[in-house]
């Protein structure tokens, strides 16, 4: 990722610009073996660590949503479309994390092996601080990659055991034993927790310059403000921190506590998952810290324009660097705005948005009018999905998606038209102009972790652990979180959110509401695919759309899903199974 290439250059410049740091020797091809580093070369081992950063998956922009009931695509070559249509196999897996993650882990293991042999700075105190920091980052990143491996490849063996992946904690040389069996799921989780604990212990909460030496945590010993700032100051914003390590722990624990992985022998509980999310929320400032503008973080123009390098808006816990482009809009604006209309939200997802009064559209008291289906709805519907009659683009152009519409935005009119009667609106900046005569770019960034995700993690886990109104150790409940999220969206604000009040009396009813809120709030950010699987929810719901003719609305089946029940778990890559006899495939996969 460009962010980390830039950061590497900036870091090397920072290291080499200080008069008491030694300039690295000119050497282009040193071997990555202990003792082969130039002892004065901090750039190379830091570059090894940067390889881990460069491999962080960006699920948010893969749009695997098109393999779920939330979206389809008009791109017939899309790998997720093919996967959903029955072409998902152990040797054809768009979700494969095996090669990427284990390559990253190898580099991180090299970093951990060699970190204490590197002279990071001429000043011994600063060198020690840098060593602590690099070690903490490597542990945290290794945990992150094991999380992604479990998410993509953990599963059920033929004997019914829940298996994880092989755990590699040492550098694997050419003579290493690569034929390792899969560790059980719980052992993998314990390794993730161990790595994250070490990261949290070694790293600061955030990278910021401090006001005085009195604010230096005791774990860093007796150092000056200047020494601390050189290792942990604001110049390193964007790298992994203690706050990020806590958030990764929340994500991993939610996966582990979920129905797909919570079998016998799994020591992670729903209470653990709630507590880990609660720690991140408490560090942010509690329930009141839910960002007021968190719904449209991607289009807050003044906020994005004012971002300093590495600094985060209030909604974002960790992100990549920003860039000026129009790629998302080019892919997803409707044809009349010179876009390719790639991601088409489904009627299934549209129906998940309640009315503005908070009642689902299936409730007779909701006020839903099938003849005017977008009137009086949850404001997030028009914010995230371009419906018929909605506006888009820099001139707020009215978009007609009806089957009898006059433009190429009409249902199935041309190859770039919507297949469902809907276009994507979320994530897109409407101030981008794609007209070739006046095209412009706008600033975008991609979050690795949003705070809303962590709030929803807490709500789900707290409800399962303590019920809708149980508060655990943090003073707020699943009910409190969902109320705050719906209130921010403008849902149920005129009637005291009567539907939520009804749901608070039942864990099962609250579970359904929490899952629906998660579906809405995190749509198109790469969550739905994984959520359905960890919940062991149905995978093969037919993707539906709407056909509008003469202002009459009729629902249509757009795409059948061809998933088998065992596909709640992904496969171990077929090539790895062929190479290594100790690897056991997940049940059902061949």
Key features of this structure:
590 residues; mainly alpha; two-stranded antiparallel ribbon; 14 strands; globular; disordered N terminus
Number of helices: 19
Q: How much helical structure, as a percent, in the residues?
A: 25-40%
**CATH domain class name of the domain at 2-53 and 96-318:** Mainly Alpha
First-last Cα distance: 34 Å
Q: How would you write the strand order of the largest sheet?
A: 1-6
Stretches where pLDDT is under 50 for at least 5 consecutive residues are 1-30
Query: What summary fits the major beta sheet?
Result: 2 strands, antiparallel
Principal-axis shape = globular
Compute the average pLDDT. Answer: 93
Family: Belongs to the SusD family.
GO cellular component, one term: cell outer membrane
Domain RagB/SusD: 327-589
Protein name: Starch-binding associating with outer membrane
């Amino acid at each position: 990722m460009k962010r980390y290439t830039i950061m590497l250059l900036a870091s090397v410049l920072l290291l080499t610009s200080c008069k008491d740091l030694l300039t690295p020797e000119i050497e282009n091809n040193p071997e990555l073996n202990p003792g082969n580093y130039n002892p004065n070369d901090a750039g190379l081992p830091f570059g090894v660590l940067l390889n881990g950063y460069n491999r962080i998956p960006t699920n948010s922009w893969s749009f695997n949503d098109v393999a779920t009931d939330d979206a389809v695509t008009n791109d017939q070559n899309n790998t997720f479309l093919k996967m959903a249509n029955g072409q998902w196999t152990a040797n054809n897996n768009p979700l494969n994390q095996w090669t990427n993650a284990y390559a990253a882990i190898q580099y991180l293991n090299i970093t951990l092996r060699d970190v204490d042999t590197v002279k990071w700075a001429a000043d011994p105190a600063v060198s020690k601080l840098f060593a602590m920091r690099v070690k903490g980052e490597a542990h945290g990143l290794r945990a992150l990659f094991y999380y992604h491996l479990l998410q993509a490849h953990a599963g059920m063996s033929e004997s019914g055991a829940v298996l994880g992946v092989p755990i590699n904690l040492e550098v694997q040389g050419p003579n290493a034993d690569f034929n390792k069996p899969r560790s059980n799921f719980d052992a993998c989780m314990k390794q993730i927790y161990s790595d994250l604990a070490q990261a949290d212990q070694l790293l600061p909460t955030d990278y910021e310059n401090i006001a005085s030496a009195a604010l230096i945590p005791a774990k860093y010993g007796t150092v000056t403000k200047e020494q601390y700032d050189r290792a942990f100051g604001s110049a390193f914003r964007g790298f992994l921190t203690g706050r990020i390590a806590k958030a990764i722990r929340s994500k991993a624990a939610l996966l582990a506590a979920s129905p797909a992985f919570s079998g016998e022998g799994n020591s992670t509980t729903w209470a653990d998952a709630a507590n880990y999310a609660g720690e991140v929320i408490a560090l942010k400032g509690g329930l009141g810290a839910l960002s007021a503008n968190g719904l449209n973080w991607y289009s807050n123009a003044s906020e994005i324009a004012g971002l300093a390098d590495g600094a985060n808006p209030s909604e974002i816990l960790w992100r990549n660097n920003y860039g000026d482009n129009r790629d998302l809009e080019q892919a997803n604006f409707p044809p009349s705005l010179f876009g390719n209309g790639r991601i088409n939200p489904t009627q299934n997802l549209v129906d998940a948005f309640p009315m503005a009064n908070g009642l689902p559209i299936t409730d007779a008291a909701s006020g839903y009018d099938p003849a005017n289906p977008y009137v009086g709805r949850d404001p997030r519907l028009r914010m995230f999905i371009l419906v018929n009659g909605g506006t888009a683009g820099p001139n707020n152009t009215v978009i007609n998606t009806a089957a009898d519409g006059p433009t190429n935005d009409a249902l199935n009119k041309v190859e770039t038209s919507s297949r469902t009667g809907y276009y994507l609106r979320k994530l897109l900046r409407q101030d981008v102009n794609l007209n070739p005569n006046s095209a412009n770019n706008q600033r975008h960034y991609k979050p690795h972790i949003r705070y809303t995700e962590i709030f929803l993690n807490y709500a789900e886990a707290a409800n399962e652990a303590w019920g809708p109104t149980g508060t655990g150790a943090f003073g707020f409940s699943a009910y409190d979180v969902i109320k705050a999220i719906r209130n921010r969206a403008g849902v149920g604000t005129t009637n005291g959110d009567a539907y939520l009040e009804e749901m608070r009396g039942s864990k099962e009813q609250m579970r359904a509401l929490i899952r629906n809120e998660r579906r809405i709030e995190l749509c198109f950010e790469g969550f739905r695919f994984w959520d359905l699987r960890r919940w062991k929810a149905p995978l093969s719901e037919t993707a539906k759309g709407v056909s509008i003719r003469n202002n009459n609305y009729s629902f249509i089946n757009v795409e059948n899903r061809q998933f088998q029940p065992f596909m709640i778990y992904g496969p171990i890559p077929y090539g790895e199974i062929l190479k290594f006899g100790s690897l056991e495939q997940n049940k059902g996969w061949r």
